[in-house]
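Exercise 3.2. Students should predict the tertiary structure of the chain below and write it as structure tokens, then compare their answer with the key that follows.

Predict this chain's 3D structure.
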Amino acid sequence: MCIFGFLAVAIPSICTLLGEETSPGGIVYGPKAGFNITAPEGWVVDNESGKEQGMPCVLYPKGSSWSDAKTVMYANMAGAEFEGVNAFVEMAIKEMKAKHGTPKEKIASGKTKDGHDYFINEYPATKNYSQWERVGYVQLPQGVAFIVLTSRDKASYQKDSGELEKVLKTLVYLEPKSEVASGKEYARRYRQLLDQHAEAQIEPLLTEWREKVPDDPDAWITSANYYFNQRQTNISTKKPGPGDITLTDKKGKLAGSISFEQDKPGMKRAAVLLQEATTKFPDHLDIWCGLAFMYQESGDFDNELSTLKKMVAYTREHPTQLKWLKGEPLVKPADKFAPEKLHEYGLYYEKKENPEDDKRWYQIATLATEQYPNDPQGFNDAAGYWADTGEWRKAREMVEKAHQIDPKSVGALLNLGNISVEMKDFASARKYFEEAVKLDPNGEYGRDAKQALQKLKKK
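Answer key:
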């Protein structure tokens, strides 16, 4: 009977009754949000009968039971990984498609008692599944509530299906029990204001958040992201670019475009906030990287490189207890994690393929080789720069250092072979290619090395 049973079991909720078993109301708590519902007239809430199936709050008509009623309902919260209703519904439809087929989407919609949006999808019976069902979905702050109505036959479904919307209209959002007047509460209010497009209230809230919860890194991160994502609308006669809106005249001919450019004062404000955050929370490498990214996006390479240098300096002085997103510890040792990040920032400039940006790529690679001489990535990047400029001897010196650090790197061997070919050192090239084949006989690098050896036979 339960089309969402697997979710209910995976994410336990706590359901309490407001009174005895015949009370018309119940509360569902999930890990990040909760809600209160009231049973429609003639129905009851039961918090015991569905427990074994992972459904702590079930509803059925008076005079019947959870096991014998022809129509029942159950309420729950989506898993903690789902904060957006669209992603949850998309997953649910995909999971149920084999049994239920394609549902009838958004057959009804409206507002809960406290103004949250809901909509209903219908899942008619199929040859493989005899139940008639409809599900109401509600977007709540930090979570998705859902209520399922399921009937044993079409006649019962037609009779009782309207009861679901009655329940949805009684729903009221509740803070999760663990929620306190802290950064989490400010984060919830911020998301709520975004949903309501209440821009005039957002900036005062962010300022209050930073003042009242000064030890919360998310106060600075959220504020910076808000200002960084501000956009200015520009209308011009220019042809539309990627992401622009095309304007046409009355005859349908191209007349111009509408573009959305980043707000420069907003970008500056975002950078200032993250600069403050690096001082307050220097162990959060995600803040350092976020600041570097903002400088990169605004075309300020000098400040980007300066930020990366400061991040590396702090990381080398404090290699333990460093944090990443949401305050989680690094998934790798700092002397592996930081060079990988430097490589990512360098690739941004390498892909631009112009001399000025190549120099920027090399500067970041040099930072990596100087500060992390036992990691091969910086040397590989530096070698790529010298290869692009035709400085083959310098390129080989860099790759040789990378090979010394990691002798089993097939990529480094392949690069050494290719550089040797460019330098007309075919004996060395053959040696490197043969070694690559031994280490990676069936892999992509190994196949490339075999092809290179075939070409060398002609030389």
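Discussion points: The longest helix spans residues 264-280. Confidence is low (pLDDT under 50) at residues 1-24.
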